[in-house]
Design brief:
With 210 residues, this protein is of the alpha+beta class. It has a single domain, classed as Bactericidal permeability-increasing protein, domain 1, CATH 3.15.10. A hairpin with a 4-residue loop joins strand 4 and strand 5.
Length: 210
């Protein structure tokens, strides 16, 4: 019984220290520079994108030599939110966005025999994460990180030799970006944010925003 009271007291103390949007925003704003630094350190800007295959109107489309630039421009978007549902853990949720993102791929189309390069611009790409902080240890765990919306996607190519295949090809590339490629980016950023959290002195950080 005594330990339970201590947990509640610790939880109340942590809630008090992080009470208010200004404080949780400040916590996220302390984390994002570390995340940007680790993105660069881990070679994720530019980030190599996976080779992918898809089918467009009976043609096999192979995407290779993919690259994504701009992940290190990540920053908080909107206000963060604080919640608790247990006696030990406090959760912080926040949205993130990117100042700029651009990608490129080399495309091969068979049996059409076409090869082309595509440049991709992404605007208003959004992500969201949730982390939980222990009132006992002041250690944080990352519960989730995901790209929630790839935003507006513009695919540009100077090769118009594909004719009627071009628009379906572009639509297929956009679909891949919003599904498989978004999942790959989410996983890479989840691992990188978890690393940034592990390197963060959370107690000192919370004290600095008290």
């Amino acid at each position: 019984m005594f330990r339970c009271c201590c947990n509640v007291t610790g939880l109340q103390r942590l809630l008090t220290r992080l009470h208010g949007t200004v404080k949780t925003n400040a916590l996220v704003d302390r984390l994002t520079p570390k995340l940007r630094k680790d993105i660069l350190k881990n070679g994720l800007d530019p980030m190599s994108l996976p080779e992918l295959d898809t089918e467009v109107l009976g043609n096999i489309v192979a995407l290779s030599e993919g690259s994504l630039e701009g992940l290190s421009t990540i920053h908080r978007s909107g206000d963060s939110h604080l919640s608790t549902g247990e006696t030990e853990w406090v959760s912080v949720q926040a949205g993130l966005s990117f100042s700029r993102l651009s990608a490129s791929y080399e495309i091969g189309v068979e049996p059409a025999g076409a090869e082309l390069s595509v440049l991709i611009e992404l605007c208003d790409t959004e992500a969201r994460f949730q982390l939980s902080i222990s009132a006992k240890t002041l250690k944080a765990r990352l519960d989730r990180f995901e790209i929630t919306d790839m935003g507006d996607v513009t695919v540009d190519t100077k090769d118009f030799s594909l004719g009627f295949l071009l628009d379906p090809l572009i639509n297929s590339i956009i679909k891949l970006l919003k599904t498989k490629i978004a999942a790959v980016i989410s996983k890479a950023l989840f691992n990188t944010m978890r690393e940034a959290l592990g390197d963060m002195d959370l107690n000192a950080t919370i004290k600095s925003i008290d």
